[in-house]
Design a protein that fits this description.
Structural class: alpha/beta
Shape: globular
Strand order of the largest sheet: 2-1-3-4
CATH topology: Rossmann fold
Radius of gyration: 15 Å
CATH class: Alpha Beta
Order of helices and strands: EHEHHEHEH
Helix content: 25-40%
Number of helices: 5
Largest sheet: 4 strands, parallel
Strand content: 5-15%
CATH architecture: 3-Layer(aba) Sandwich
Distance between the termini: 16 Å
Number of domains: 1
Length: 164
């Protein structure tokens, strides 16, 4: 990563309409609250192409709004090779997406690809952020709480690593 480049953080799930846009919105909110917006480039994407161009799932919009976050402007996209250059931290929500990301990783990628739950302060015995897509709306609320806690841990990790 170049010295003048912002710290790139990319959240990744399968379709980029539930977990990763929620994580992007929550993490960006935490960054802004800490007065660090000038240091970060935060985005999200999916590993699959089927939601490209779509807005977040209405249940994700409702759940994030209930917790005080706004993800309405996000549009789903699929990861591409340029993301490996742009983002120092690529944060998949689950092992399956992590496997895809590491398989597609260009030779020489110097960033970190780590499961989001690695940064959760007590990870509740979980290693992945569960996908609520095929569940009812009520399943989105605990996911948002988990993402909030993992976001705090990730931000602390990055701040310590970069001295900010």
């Amino acid at each position: 990563m170049q010295e003048n480049k912002k710290i790139g953080v990319l959240f990744v799930c399968l379709g980029n309409i539930c977990r990763s846009p929620s994580a992007q919105g929550i993490f960006q909110h935490r960054v802004n609250e800490a007065g660090l917006a000038d240091y970060f480039d935060v985005d999200s994407c999916g590993t699959a192409p089927f939601n490209v161009g779509k807005s977040p799932d209405p249940r994700a919009l409702t759940a994030t709004e209930k917790f005080g976050y706004d993800i309405t402007d996000q549009i789903a996209r699929q990861i591409d090779e340029a993301d490996y250059e742009r983002f120092e931290y690529i944060i998949p929500m689950d092992r399956k997406n992590m496997m895809s990301l590491t398989a597609w990783q260009p030779k020489g990628y110097a960033g970190e690809i780590e499961l989001f739950m690695k940064y959760h302060p007590n990870n509740c015995g979980m290693t992945q952020i569960p996908d609520p897509y095929h569940e009812g709306a009520e399943k989105f609320f605990p996911i948002i709480e988990t993402i909030e806690q993992a976001s705090e841990g990730l931000l602390s990790y990055i701040r310590e690593k970069h001295g900010i």
